[in-house]
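Problem: given the chain below (507 residues), write out its structure.
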Amino acid sequence: MTTLTHSSDTLTRDALAVLQPGFRGTTAPDWLLRRIGEGLTSVGLFGRNITSPAQLAALTAQLRAERDDVLVAIDEEGGDVTRLEVRDGSSFPGNYALGSVDDVDLTRAVARELGSRLAACGVNLNWAPSADVNSDVNNPVIGVRSFGADPALVSRHTAAYVEGLQSAGVAACTKHFPGHGDTAVDSHHALPRIDADFDTLHARELAPFRSAIAAGSKSVMSAHILLSALDPNRPATLSPQIVTGLLREELGFDGLIVTDGIEMQAIASTYGIERGSVLAIAAGVDAICVGGGLADEETVLRLRDALVDAVREGELPEERLADAAARVRALADWTLRVRGASGPGAAVQEGTAPGIGSTGTDIGLVAARRALRVTGTVEPLQEAPYVASFAPVANIAVGDETPWGVAAELTALLPGTETGTYGGENTAAEVLAAAGERRIVAVVRDIHRHAWMAAVLDGILAARPDTAVVEMGVNHAEPTGSPHIATYGAARVCGRAAAEALTGREA
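Solution.
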């Protein structure tokens, strides 16, 4: 048993302050509002909480009626990972498309516009950008969420993204420290392990985080990955050597450190969420993200009580919990001051790309068009085609709620377009039969990772060599099709840019 220096009420408020929980529904439940009154300082929003910008603005206003400086966080990367436009697809291409263009001014302007839309809805903390270097082309969870495989490119675009987002008054949360790009395992399902040596990690994984810190990133998100060269025993989120020794002391980061979802299996199935949360705070983390899967009051109370009990039993130093809570409140205070100084959306008037306005612009579409890569000659479609979409199982970060592809955009340009969705159980013969005499547009995603997809596409191309192929994932396989179009992501605007290229018309 330890001797407490502060009251039990202060300890409980600090324990609530370090949690970033989610909830279900499009209005705040009574239990959440009550906990905000008791000290909860952050709330996480997901696609299930959002139906429109107006509804989101009303929701955040409801939260701020309880606490004016509440941190309202969201996982809005743009591109494949969108919560703001979860039902329609993002108006912004993701990191891979921006990295392929390699124009830092464009990246900064896209992030600024995305930030301005979040700020206008009352969101002030974005769990983005992904600063992971996608060095493993078969990575099942990062892929197009990364700017690319070159550390220097990822570094300069990470910095530009942080600058753009924060210039709109929204705090960036650079992730997934110290780098999730060289993994073949998705930490939503299990604990990934990276066995790269110390020098490689510093030159590759850590470079973008150094740039993000130099750019002033207000927060950093830790990854649930084991890096044997840094700590062979504990994943980064729970490692004092990585969180405090590396991020705080060596890299000099003084902002808020947030965990990735604590209920992800890399932590939940190995330590449990209660012990995982205690170990994370003890290691130097300041905030526990929870709510993607566990989104109820019971979870909040379990984690609150686990932290309070750990302090009382001497497992977690009281001053460490107090320091973590103070960092959360400091970021909340920054967002309040920024909002008060500039007003909602006021920061979006400067720094946009040449020729591009501020709020309400089509800069996302401009970026998607610039990212497009066409191999071969495009003979513009004159008649409605048959779109065959090959759909791999989506990872949890992306989810399967958000539509993707080119069918809807082609239908807008060529009414009568027909479409079918195919998986690993389908054959080329089925696609050919469904298409009939129509020109085929085959839409694939990370075809290099899916042997079934490549085999079916080969069969289609053998019978119909005029098939157009649109790759909407990582563009690693050799181009095939007549033509081959790489969009570098599956956002709605990427599909629109591809449809324009296929038809020779603007949507």
